[in-house]
Design goal:
single chain, about 425 residues, alpha+beta, 7-stranded mixed β-sheet, 5-stranded mixed β-sheet, 24 strands, globular, binds glycyl-adenosine-5'-phosphate
Length: about 425
């Protein structure tokens, strides 16, 4: 894992938050390559939900909501809390499930009795910091969907079953954030809420669980690195009638990356009770009025980002090149799905001290950069530049050489096969479009 963390920092995927001030635990910043890759992940998920499935619409609700939302959802009570023990000597806190013996894992000190700590992040709205102005940063994006259930239903004239999806930031005061992007205090979720008749909930649960497993594999996670865990009743989230965790085999073990939940009528009935607004659905055909059940799929963008990096990261001792003598260096290859890769095309003039060559390369760069995320690189030997691009997962390298000036063609190198093809400049855009789209 350390190698991935180091690559992320070195090549501009992820930086520790507030690094010049010594960092800010559990928060991370996405660098130039990270933000491209993260946007690719979010776009793929959005397209999967809103284009590849029918009857799903999007929403972008506010992070700050009335505190009443969190009372109704149950997040302000004991259900959304970690049980922690505190060391009486060093005062560090540990989750109950991390403690093997009744001793502090760090200093062997005596531990307190377990106590509940709520995970909601508090803030104040308005100029006065008093109880009346307390608000919370949302702990899950889906509450914004439930409180807009009626708005979306009516404005879009939807009929059950239908879905509402949303991507956005969520915040939890995690006591033990750890493992890089795995458990953070500020993270991003991609959630879809499927509203259906209670009698269809079991069927749709199976459907969505399967769909999610298929999608995760379609973007590059290997089947053997994914498994499902049926969460037993006493470990389930407070709102869940059924909960299946989709787990990924991270370098530090099998861990949840996505949850599929049958939330029943927990959310809509509680919001009805607390707001006084009847959120039942009326079926025009059957004249039935009922609270729809909700099947939820919820995945963290950051966890998925991390899992995709773990899956794609490869080290090749001595390098992949067969044409020259293998060097002792270890080559890094990031075999990301071409849709996920942050840079699609690198444009490389063979040498930087031949103005005609550089000019041609820059022309090609300008032509391609409006269609794909491209990088122009003229520094170092061509072999070294190929390796730099392999390390960040760039799908194609386009090399402009001395021949280019005579035959108006370039060499296109494929990241995975390292095969090189000569392509006429006039055909280059359509060639790359066909391969990348
Ligand atoms: N709305 C349901 C919900 O929030 P969850 O299992 O608590 O369910 C869903 O969270 C997903 O959000 C998790 O599977 C994980 O991918 C991501 N997630 C949750 N807490 C996280 C954290 N502290 N850091 C990063 N991702 C987190």
């Amino acid at each position: 894992m350390e190698k991935i963390v180091s690559l992320c920092k070195r090549r501009g995927f992820i930086f520790p938050s507030s690094e010049i001030y010594g960092g800010f635990s559990s928060c991370y910043d996405y660098g130039p390559l990270g933000v491209e890759m993260k946007n690719n992940i979010k776009n793929l998920w959005w397209d999967e939900m809103t284009k590849n499935h029918e009857n799903i619409v999007g929403l972008d609700s506010a992070i700050l909501m009335s505190p009443k939302v969190w009372e109704a959802s149950g997040h302000l009570s004991a259900g959304f809390a970690d049980t922690l023990l505190e060391c009486k000597s060093c005062h560090k806190r540990f989750r109950e499930d991390e403690i093997k013996e009744r001793k502090c894992p760090e200093c062997q000190g005596e531990l307190t009795e377990p106590r509940k700590f709520n995970l909601m992040m508090k803030t104040f709205v308005g100029p006065v910091e008093e109880t009346a102005s307390i608000a919370y940063l949302r702990a899950e994006t889906c509450q914004g969907i439930y409180v807009n259930f009626e708005n979306v239903l009516n404005s879009m004239r939807l009929k059950i079953p239908f879905g509402i999806c949303q991507i956005g930031k969520a915040f939890r005061n995690e006591i033990t954030p750890r493992d890089f992007l795995y458990r953070m205090r500020e993270f991003e979720q991609m959630e879809m809420q499927w509203f259906c008749h209670p009698k269809d909930a079991d069927k749709f649960f199976e459907f969505w669980l399967n769909e999610r497993l298929k999608w995760l594999q379609s973007i590059g996670l290997k089947k053997e690195n994914l498994r499902v865990f049926e969460v037993p009743e006493k470990e389930r989230a407070h709102y869940a009638r059924r909960q299946v965790d989709i787990e990924y085999k991270f370098p530090f073990g099998w861990k949840e990356i996505e949850g599929v939940h049958n939330r029943g009528d927990w959310d809509l009935s509680n919001h009805s009770k607390h707001s006084g607004k009847d959120l039942r659905y009326f079926d025009e055909k059957t004249k039935e009025k009922y609270f729809p059940f909700i099947i939820e799929t919820s995945i963290g963008v950051d966890r998925l980002f991390f899992a995709l990096l773990c899956e794609a990261y490869e080290e090749i001792k001595g390098g992949r090149t067969k044409t020259t003598k293998p060097t002792k260096e270890v080559e890094i290859l990031l075999k990301l799905d071409k849709r996920i890769a942050p840079i699609k095309v690198a444009i490389l003039p063979l040498v930087k001290n031949k103005p005609e060559l550089v000019q041609k390369a820059k022309e090609i760069y300008r032509m391609l950069k409006v269609h794909f995320v491209c990088q122009y690189d003229e520094v170092g030997s061509i072999g070294r530049r190929y390796r730099r691009q392999d390390e960040i997962g760039t799908v194609f390298c386009v090399t402009i050489d001395f021949e280019t000036l005579k035959d108006n063609a370039v060499t296109v190198r494929d990241r995975d096969t390292m095969e090189q093809e000569r392509v006429k400049i006039e055909n280059l855009l359509s060639y790359l479009k066909e391969k990348l789209d």
